[in-house]
């Protein structure tokens, strides 16, 4: 029973003693663990410190290595700069030597020229003295001749001039007869030569403006890319556009040549696109050509629509609109056909208003009068008949069809509008500066200029040069002296002013030449 009663006491004592024992045990374990952790931390700190020192040493070595490399590079640049400075100094020394030599040469030449000038002044003085002596001798000789002949000075001059005039008239008659005979024999040949030369000179500028376009290149290498390997690119381009490509030695440009101005413009735009794109090969060339052709068709249609809109026509057939747009790239004697058609339409409208006719119908006739020129060379016939057929095909009014067909009087005029179109067409084409001067008129003006100059006494031959802006007259030195040559020059200038009409001025140059020929054997 006592044992059972002491159990709680035992338990209590066990608990009382176990708590301090557990506390001390926990404290011992915690102290041991803290001591271990402090040792581990100290070891890690020492490792980190050693690693930091190692990295610091490596960084110092890397910095020293980089500084060494940069110092070497800097010294190398300094050496190169010193070498360049030495070379520049040598070049400057050479240039200074060259300049000194040139200065010496110039100084010698100046001295030589001064010597020549002194000699020239001396010779001029001698010539003046001799000329004065010659004049005195001539005056004395003249007095002696007048004394011997018994005539006064005026009487002697009159008799001499009469004798000379008679001889000159006889010689002129012989020369004129001979010249007429020679002209009749060689007229056809000379006319053919003049025509050929004039056409050749005239076609150069005309061709350059109307049959050729140029495209600028960014560099000379582009020419090789345009030609392509074995010429495949240029052949593809010519086949796709129908225009010849001329790649010559002209720097910075290529030339596009062709009679169809629309195709030539398409080729020019396509070539510029290819150059800007940089991808030049057959497939790309065909693609760009087709794309540009479509754009040109749209552009022609838009141009025709704009012209019709400005003229007040909103019911024009689409094909006629497109043909009007094509006239933008057509010329006749240097005159743009679209601008000419617009001008004729305006003139027709003004005249119709004065005559109290249908102004709109008159303008329509004038606008379409040259529509036949928009067709290509595959359509045969003159442009008036072609234009009338086109207008009839697209159901234009009979007055319009007849005005187109009759504006060059190929068919009878059936309405007042045909007469208006013919008059307006003549006014537009004939105004000053509208068209180039015709070849026949140009040749006639040159012939008349030469004939006028050759009609004066003592003239041996006359040649019109510089497109009629100058006339060179060669006189017979045995019949015309220097004073008379000046008189003939004045008379020819006044004769040209009275007989010819010309723009600007004509320079008259009279040439009197004396030749001395001797044969050495």
Low-pLDDT stretches are: 191-211
Strand/helix succession: HHEHHEEHHHEEHHHHHHEEHE
Q: In total, how many domains does the architecture comprise?
A: 5
Q: What level of helicity do the residues show?
A: over 70%
Strand content: 5-15%
| Largest beta sheet: strand ordering | 1-3-2
What is the makeup of the main sheet? 3 strands, antiparallel
Distance between the termini: 186 Å
- Number of beta-strand segments: 8
Structural class: mainly alpha
Averaged pLDDT: 79
Morphology call: flat
How many helices? 14
How much is the radius of gyration in Å?
Answer: 52 Å
Quick description:
By secondary structure, the chain is mainly α. Helices cover 72% and strands 7% of the residues. Strand 4 and strand 5 form a beta hairpin.
Write structural notes for this entry.
The protein has 521 residues and is mainly α. It folds into 5 domains: 14-148; 169-204; 211-297, Ribosomal Protein S8, Chain: A, domain 1, CATH 3.30.1370; 312-430, Orthogonal Bundle (Hypothetical protein af1432); 439-512, Alpha-Beta Plaits, CATH 3.30.70.1350. The chain contains 14 helices and 8 strands. Strands 1-3-2 form a 3-stranded antiparallel sheet. Strand 4 (331-332) and strand 5 (335-336) form a beta hairpin. Helix 4 (232-241) packs parallel to helix 6 and helix 5 (261-277) crosses helix 6 (282-311). The N and C termini lie far apart (186 Å). Residues 191-211 have low confidence and may be disordered.
How are the SSEs ordered, and which strands pair?
Elements: H1 2-149, H2 153-210, E1 212-216, H3 221-227, H4 232-241, E2 244-246, E3 253-257, H5 261-277, H6 282-311, H7 318-326, E4 331-332, E5 335-336, H8 337-355, H9 359-368, H10 383-393, H11 398-406, H12 416-430, H13 439-454, E6 459-465, E7 470-475, H14 482-499, E8 507-512
Parallel strand pairs: 7-8
Antiparallel strand pairs: 1-3, 2-3, 4-5, 6-7
Helix pairs in contact: 4-6, 5-6, 6-7, 8-9, 8-12, 9-11, 9-12, 10-11, 11-12
């Amino acid at each position: 029973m006592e044992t059972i009663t002491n159990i709680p006491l035992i338990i209590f004592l066990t608990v009382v003693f176990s708590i301090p024992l557990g506390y001390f045990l926990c404290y011992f374990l915690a102290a041991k663990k803290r001591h271990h952790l402090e040792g581990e931390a100290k070891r890690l700190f020492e490792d980190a410190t050693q690693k930091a020192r190692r990295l610091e040493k490596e960084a110092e070595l890397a910095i020293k290595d980089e500084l060494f490399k940069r110092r070497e590079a800097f010294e190398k640049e300094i050496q190169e700069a010193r070498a360049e400075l030495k070379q520049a100094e040598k070049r400057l020394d050479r240039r200074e030597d060259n300049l000194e030599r040139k200065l010496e040469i110039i100084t010698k030449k100046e001295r030589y020229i001064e010597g020549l000038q002194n000699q020239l002044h001396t010779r001029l003085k001698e010539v003046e003295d001799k000329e004065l002596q010659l004049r005195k001798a001539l005056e004395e000789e003249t007095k002696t001749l007048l004394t011997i002949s018994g005539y006064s000075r005026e009487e002697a001059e009159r008799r001499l001039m009469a004798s000379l005039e008679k001889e000159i008239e006889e010689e002129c008659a012989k020369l004129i007869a001979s010249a007429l005979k020679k002209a009749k024999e060689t007229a056809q040949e000379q006319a053919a030569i003049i025509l050929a030369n004039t056409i050749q000179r005239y076609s150069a500028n005309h061709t350059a403006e109307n049959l050729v376009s140029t495209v600028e290149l960014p560099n000379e290498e582009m020419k090789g890319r345009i030609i392509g390997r074995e010429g495949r690119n240029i052949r593809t381009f010519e086949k796709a556009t129908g225009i010849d490509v001329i790649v010559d030695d002209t720097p910075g440009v290529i030339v596009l040549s062709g009679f169809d101005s629309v195709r030539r413009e398409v080729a020019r735009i396509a070539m510029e696109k290819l150059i800007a794109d940089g991808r030049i090969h057959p497939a790309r060339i065909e693609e760009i050509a087709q794309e540009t052709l479509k754009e040109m068709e749209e552009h022609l249609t838009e141009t025709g629509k704009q012209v019709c809109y400005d003229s007040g026509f909103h019911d024009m057939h689409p094909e006629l609109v497109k043909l009007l747009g094509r006239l933008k790239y057509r010329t006749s004697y240097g005159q743009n056909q679209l601008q000419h058609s617009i001008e004729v339409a305006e003139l027709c409208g003004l005249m119709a208003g004065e005559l109290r006719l249908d102004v709109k119908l008159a303008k329509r006739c004038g606008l379409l009068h040259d529509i036949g020129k928009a067709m290509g060379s595959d359509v045969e016939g003159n442009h008036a008949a072609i234009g009338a057929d086109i207008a009839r095909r697209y159901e234009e009014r009979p007055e319009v069809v007849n005005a187109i067909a009759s504006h060059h009087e190929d068919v009878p005029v059936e309405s007042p509008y045909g007469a208006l179109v013919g008059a307006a067409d003549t006014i537009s084409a004939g105004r000053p500066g509208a068209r180039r001067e015709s070849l026949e008129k140009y040749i006639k003006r040159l012939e008349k200029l030469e004939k006028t100059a050759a009609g004066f006494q003592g003239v041996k031959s006359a040649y019109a040069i510089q497109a009629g802006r100058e006339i060179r007259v060669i006189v017979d030195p045995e019949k015309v002296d220097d004073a008379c040559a000046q008189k003939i020059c004045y008379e020819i200038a006044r004769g040209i002013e009275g007989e010819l009409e010309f723009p600007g001025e004509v320079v008259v140059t009279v040439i009197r030449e004396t030749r001395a020929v001797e044969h050495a054997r």
